[in-house]
Design a protein that fits this description.
The protein is an alpha/beta fold. The chain folds into five domains: 97 residues, Orthogonal Bundle (Arc Repressor Mutant, subunit A); 156 residues, Serine Threonine Protein Phosphatase 5, Tetratricopeptide repeat (Alpha Horseshoe), CATH 1.25.40; 146 residues, 3-Layer(aba) Sandwich (Rossmann fold), CATH 3.40.50.300; 64 residues; 76 residues, Orthogonal Bundle (Arc Repressor Mutant, subunit A), CATH 1.10.10. The chain is 50% helix and 9% strand. It contains 26 helices and 13 strands. The longest helix has 27 residues.
């Protein structure tokens, strides 16, 4: 059986079905915080806030090390790699999806929702019932920090939605207002008295049970709850239901069995719904406008699939934004969410379009027999996705050819692409991602380095944000340096970033910039020589002077740099290159033998 964690009630860990004796108090709170972020590193500052609030003791970091050591020992098993690791300035707990009851609850709920959307309440109801059975009658403890408490609130909200959808499935299948269904709805309303859909479900179940008087009393109770808490009257749906009860509407007594599935052939598509979106591993701030646009594009999908692309220079957080937007639109794609990292932002050979297509077929269980060519692989993907609601998230796309011809002609599918370069397609909604504005950059630095360090040295913190040019990747890398060197001040980090010998290394941008540079082709020579350019906008005339090339060739090279997100237009005939990119160009120019002897 291995190791199991239970947080949907009293906090428990079980090894082969036997309870592991967990220490009370903060060590258990430490464990719960890690479980709610399973697979992602939780920064030390976040843990301090969760365990001690706004006034952690001076010994907080040492106490965390003690708690980590204690839990590492408790969770250890012979022959099994350690579960708990120090990582990225915090702690990471390795948990498999089937080892945490909250993750299993989410999986069952999503699969149940997909079955119900597909017109199969007979399949959905048992899935919802299994999901609800994972919750204990005893609520989880309340003594946790703000982020943990918010996570439990979201889980409770999700449980409430599952209860209501399960009750509707039972009614659709002809439940006669049985005692278990009535008890479930009464318990749910005792905890959530402002949920009008739940009041409507209870009234319907009472009518099914032949107790119309009880249904009328339930309506009056709903009126009192809504008026007392919100000062409002019931909405039109609940009011119309009340009128239907009063006029003895026979439709209240009829169920809605899965008629859609009776008259159609068995669905050859996989019963297993893929949910491949990874848990976010880094803090996320800002980007409200971009998130609004992405959410609107993804959730508006109806009968025609859509493609949405996020692009921008290396380090702007394209992958984080894409995953955040995809997670926010999760319920709009009940038939599954696929995720592939194509490695376009890293040094190396990107996968071919055929390799991308075959990789997408595997989680759809449609790769047997293996397709023999790209056209066959893509046509099979379209066949599987036809008339379904599936989200494809293809991260770090290096070449638009990798993502062409994947969507069918009809259905609620969406393709979300992140790439350094824009997807040149008039039918694609594009979002260009710029560096964070100073306020959001400072907020990210707070989340990763901690409020105390930012508040104690606000000017140095602002300098760090500016020297990192508002790039989330650079800010997280700088904060990681502070975590690795707790004796460093923010001012010392700022001084190191000002030193051009160390700035690229401290920001972690070099591998991303290298990947962009290696795809510049003939423009690479111009890019290397731009390291010699003085501060300020670059003109084609200046680029031509630095390289000895004709001005027309310099214009084409600068436009190629813009397409690669290594430069940006700054007005007619002017181009802006960031200091970090300029430093990288200078570094290449100083070491590349092709430029020796030609430098001024």
């Amino acid at each position: 059986m291995g190791l199991m964690f239970q947080i949907l009630g009293p906090i428990r860990a079980l090894r082969d079905g036997r309870p592991v004796r967990l220490p009370g108090g903060r060590p258990t709170a430490f464990l719960v915080t890690l479980l709610l972020h399973a697979g992602a590193a939780v920064p030390v500052e976040r843990l301090r806030e969760e365990l001690w609030g706004g006034q952690p003791p001076a010994s907080a970091v040492a106490n965390l090390r003690t708690h980590a050591s204690q839990l590492r020992h408790l969770l250890a098993a012979p022959g099994e790699p350690p579960r708990l690791h120090a990582a990225d300035g915090g702690y990471l707990l390795r948990v498999e999806p089937d080892e945490l009851d909250a993750a299993e609850f989410e999986r069952l709920a999503i699969e149940g929702h997909a079955a119900r959307v597909d017109g199969r309440p007979d399949v959905a109801a048992p899935l919802f019932e299994r999901a609800l059975s994972l919750w204990s009658a005893t609520e989880p403890p309340a003594a946790y920090g703000p982020a943990t408490a918010a996570a439990f609130d979201r889980l409770r909200e999700r449980r409430g939605a599952v209860r209501e959808t399960y009750a509707q499935c039972r009614l659709d299948l002809g439940d006669p207002g049985s005692y278990p269904l009535l008890a479930l709805l009464r318990r749910h309303l005792a905890e959530n008295p402002l949920r009008e859909p739940a009041w409507a479900l209870l009234m319907t179940a009472q009518c099914r049970a032949g107790d119309r008087a009880a249904a009328l009393r339930t309506y009056r109770a709903a009126c009192q709850a809504l008026a007392g808490e919100l000062g409002v009257s019931p909405g039109p749906e609940l009011t119309e239901l009340y009128r239907a009860v009063r006029r003895h509407d026979p439709r209240l007594l009829a169920g809605r069995p899965a008629a859609r599935t009776r008259d159609r052939p068995a669905d050859p598509r996989p019963a297993l719904v893929p949910h491949e979106l990874p848990c976010p591993g880094t803090p996320f701030v800002g980007r409200r406008g971009e998130l609004t646009r992405l959410n609107a594009a993804l959730t508006a999908v109806r009968e025609t699939p859509v493609t949405v692309a996020v692009y921008g220079m290396p380090g702007t957080g394209k992958s984080a934004l894409g995953l955040h937007a995809a997670a926010g639109a999760l319920d709009a794609f009940p038939h599954g969410q696929l995720h592939l990292d194509l490695g376009g932002s890293l040094d190396g050979t990107p996968p071919s379009p055929f390799e991308v297509a075959t990789a997408l077929l595997r989680p759809l269980r449609a790769a047997t027999p293996e397709p023999t060519d790209l056209a066959e692989a893509r046509s099979r993907i379209r066949s599987v996705l036809f008339d379904r609601r599936v989200l494809l998230v293809l991260d770090n796309v290096a070449d638009p050819a990798q993502v062409e011809a994947l969507l069918p002609v009809r259905g609620g599918c969406a393709l979300l692409v992140t790439s350094r370069c824009p997807v040149a397609d008039p039918f694609t909604a594009t979002v260009r991602l710029d560096p964070l504005p100073p306020a959001d950059g400072l907020a990210l630095l707070r989340l990763t380095a901690g409020d105390r360090r930012v508040d104690e040295e606000p000017e140095a913190a602002s300098a760090v944000v500016a020297l990192c040019e508002g790039l989330p990747l650079a800010l997280r890398s700088a904060a990681r340096r502070l975590a690795e060197c707790p004796h460093w001040s923010m001012a010392r980090l700022a001084r190191r970033l000002r030193d051009e010998r160390y700035r690229l290394a401290e920001t972690g941008l070099r591998p991303r910039l290298t990947a962009s540079y290696r795809r510049l082709g003939s423009a690479a020579r111009f890019f290397r020589r731009l390291g010699d350019a003085p501060a300020g906008p670059v003109t084609p005339e200046l680029a031509a002077t630095l390289t000895g090339a004709p001005a027309e060739e310099a214009v084409r090279a600068l436009d190629r740099l813009v397409a690669a997100q290594l430069a940006e237009p700054a007005g007619p005939g002017r181009y802006r290159i960031g200091d970090l990119v300029r430093l990288y160009a200078a570094e290449l120019g100083a070491t590349d033998p092709r430029d020796r002897g030609g430098r001024r």
